[in-house]
Write a structure and sequence with these properties.
Blueprint lengths: L9 E4 L20 E4 L16 H14 L6 H11 L3 H14 L3 H14 L4 H20 L3 H19 L6 H13 L3 H15 L4 H24 L5 H11 L3 H14 L4 H13 L3 H13 L7 H13 L3 H14 L4 H13 L3 H14 L4 H11 L1
């Protein structure tokens, strides 16, 4: 049985006098054993010093720094790797961000583990790790792995808080945390984050901000205006989401109806009302709420509204309108695997197994581990 502990892939050696890690002057302390990463399938008895490579030592150091944070020789190991590979942090950071963008989350996790061990005090690494967790949570939620998504979101929030508590302040931490809280429908916290971001950047010149900074500042102010104009930081809005999200739909519906009495033109609120009604199986009422959401400013551009409306049409056996809504949703968000999966199930109902198969395969192109798509494709092969 293979061990799942990464430290089991490392063993320690004392370097011989004639072994140099670097071309440049660097004093090796030969009284401290160095961690070495085993080669794939290598047993301890197969190891020979004459076959030892510098890369094995550097990989071993990264493994120890990542998974053995209390190692008494950690600082010495850090000094070695930063001397031999001075750009190692930049290289690993770029690779971790790329892996996150491509949703290769397991590899991104390994890279971030190494980075956090390499430089625990680097607040930029903490922010990028929060963004990674945030994006991984979204992926889990699209695959209906709700518990995994909630756990990732909780860890993401913890890391965002570390960044926001940093001194000196990190403006981008507040900007990204604002979007995180919007995703969680906690618009009061989102408002606080964006207000802080605007305050931190208000005295910075456009030249120093750069094009991207100017965009962020304008976007933050736009979101703040939207939250204010639609009263989305109202506690009833947040309470409604939390009730519906944890299965207490009736309580959530009461709260969102209270909100709508005072704010009848907020598309998000009509969407939330429809969501709660749909979860209760009240598809006709839910459908009317989603249609009302689309009549409000901003609601006609939300792919989730089209997706939810399509699900109501499916329950009513109105497959023609359901397909139109799924198509509209995918036009707005062509990489949304949840909508692709729903479209695939609709094609199965319509008797189009090959088309359904193509949608499930498309899901796997974006998320190779999607359990629903994998299971359905397996059934199709039987």
């Amino acid at each position: 049985m293979t061990s799942s502990n990464p430290l089991d892939t490392v063993f320690y050696v004392t370097l011989p006098e004639n072994f140099d890690l670097s071309k440049h002057a660097f004093q090796i302390d030969r009284t401290i054993p160095l961690p070495v990463q085993k080669k794939d399938g290598q047993a301890d008895e197969d190891f020979s010093l004459k076959d030892l490579t510098q890369e094995q030592i550097l990989a071993g150091i990264l493994t120890v720094l990542g998974y053995d944070r209390e190692n008494k020789n950690a600082e010495y190991y850090r000094s070695i790797i930063t001397h031999v590979r001075p750009d190692i942090k930049k290289e690993l950071s770029e690779a971790a961000i790329l892996k996150t963008k491509n949703e290769d989350f397991d590899m991104a996790e390994e890279l971030f583990t190494a980075l956090r061990g390499l430089d625990p005090a680097d607040i930029g690494i903490t922010l990028n790790y929060a963004l990674y967790l945030d994006q991984r949570a979204d992926s889990y939620r699209r695959s209906s792995l709700i518990d995994d998504a909630d756990a990732c979101d909780a860890e993401a929030e913890a890391n965002y808080k570390i960044v926001m508590e940093n001194d000196p302040a990190v403006p981008d931490g507040f900007f990204n945390a604002g979007f995180f809280y919007m995703k969680c429908h906690d618009f009061r916290k989102a408002r606080d984050c964006f207000e802080t971001y605007v305050a931190l950047t208000c005295d910075v010149s456009d030249e120093d901000l750069g094009q991207n900074g100017i965009y962020k500042k304008e976007r933050a102010q736009e979101i703040l205006d939207n939250i204010k104009n639609q009263n989305m930081d109202d506690e009833r809005f947040k309470a409604a989401y939390e009730f519906i999200n944890r299965g207490e739909e009736e309580k959530g519906l009461d709260k969102i109806r209270e909100f709508l009495q005072a704010n009848p033109h907020v598309w998000n609120a009509w969407f939330m009302l429809g969501w709660g009604l749909r979860k209760l199986g009240r598809f006709q009422d839910a459908k009317q709420s989603f249609l009302k959401s689309m009549e409000c400013e901003g609601g006609e551009h939300n792919p989730d509204t089209f997706n939810e409306l399509a699900l109501c049409y499916v329950e009513e056996q109105n497959f023609t309108d359901a397909q139109k809504c799924f198509e509209n949703a995918l036009t707005l968000d062509p990489e949304n695997t949840k909508i692709m999966s729903n479209m695939a199930f609709l094609q199965l109902k319509l008797g189009n197994p090959e088309l359904a198969k193509s949608y499930f395969q498309a899901v796997l192109e974006f998320d190779p581990n999607d359990k629903i798509a994998l299971n359905e494709l397996d059934k199709m092969e039987i």
